[in-house]
Write a structure and sequence with these properties.
about 300 residues, globular
């Protein structure tokens, strides 16, 4: 796969370079998901300069995207079906990446170089930097995606950030989130969808806005009472403090049901429940092993 990584850097390169090559299982001894807070903060630090100039270009949201994708990989879901991928192109059909991994290169150096260059170019042409998915009404970019050609979209996570103008923007965020879900659910009713919202700690200076944000996250899980397909399967709220000593999370201010551990557990279990037991076998086995009693 190295030949398909691409030689030039993109806006995800530095963040992915900060992720360890070996990922530890997220499941604790009770079969509960334990998210990697240090990893999330490391990615935020790579992307964020402590101000909000980069936030306006989506740098904070990008850090959250890569963190979520990595948490799913920690759960042993096949890496290549999770987009954005750790290597370029960030979006690539699993069938093509699998075929590339199985390709038998020639022993002759000159021939091998031609083969590697050809496959690298194929990956570049077939791949994309955008996880844009066609919904029922319009195409929409979904930040983190699990998909494959033979089953379509299986899981999607929308990530949003807010660093200022909370009162003015909350309603817009709510309308956007509910509209996006209606659009995507129309075409993919069985897919698992989540919503992750990161806000900065200055929101605490506006208590009414903070309460509205928590209420929004709760309501996104119950948009259509009695029909879970009309709501997000899970929502997560991250409260970030940015300071001279680096970023830190203030999750003690967040309700238990909106915590990252709960969110990630729901997403993985919904993915399991909506697919045959023959799918995502490694991920299922990893979770089962965490629940096995000690010998």
């Amino acid at each position: 796969m190295a030949v398909m990584a691409g030689s030039s850097k993109d806006r995800m390169s530095d963040a992915y370079a900060a992720i360890p090559a070996e990922l530890a299982s997220p499941w604790n001894e009770r079969g509960k998901f334990a998210f990697d807070e240090d990893l999330l903060l490391r990615l935020i630090k790579v992307q964020d300069d402590g101000g909000d100039s980069k936030a306006n270009t989506g740098a904070l949201a990008l850090a959250v995207d890569i963190w979520i994708a990595t948490e799913l990989r920690r759960a042993a879901i096949a890496s290549d079906i999770i987009w954005p991928r750790p290597t370029r192109p960030r979006v690539l059909s699993q069938s093509l990446s699998s075929a590339t991994a199985r390709f038998k290169y020639a022993r002759k150096k000159t021939t091998r170089e031609v083969e590697e260059a050809t496959i690298s170019k194929l990956g570049e042409l077939a791949g994309s930097s955008s996880t844009k998915v066609l919904g029922g009404f319009f195409a929409k970019e979904i930040d983190v995606v699990i998909a494959e050609y033979d089953r379509g979209l299986e899981l999607g996570v929308s990530t949003k950030t807010m660093t200022k103008s909370f009162g003015k923007n909350i309603t817009n965020r709510f309308e956007e989130a509910s509209g996006d879900l209606l659009n995507i659910r129309r075409r993919f009713p069985l897919a698992t969808f989540g919503y992750v919202f990161l806000v900065t700690s200055n929101v605490l200076m506006e208590p009414n806005c903070w309460e509205r944000i928590k209420d929004m996250c709760h309501k996104l899980e119950s948009l259509t009472p009695g029909d879970q397909r009309g709501s997000y399967d899970a929502t997560c709220l991250l409260l970030l403090e940015r300071g001279p000593k680096g970023p830190r999370l203030l999750q003690e201010e967040v309700p238990d049901e909106l915590q990252p551990d709960v969110f990630l557990s729901k997403m993985v279990f919904e993915l399991f429940s909506r697919s045959p037991v023959s799918e995502h076998v490694a991920a299922r086995e990893l979770w089962e092993a965490s629940r096995a009693p000690d010998p």
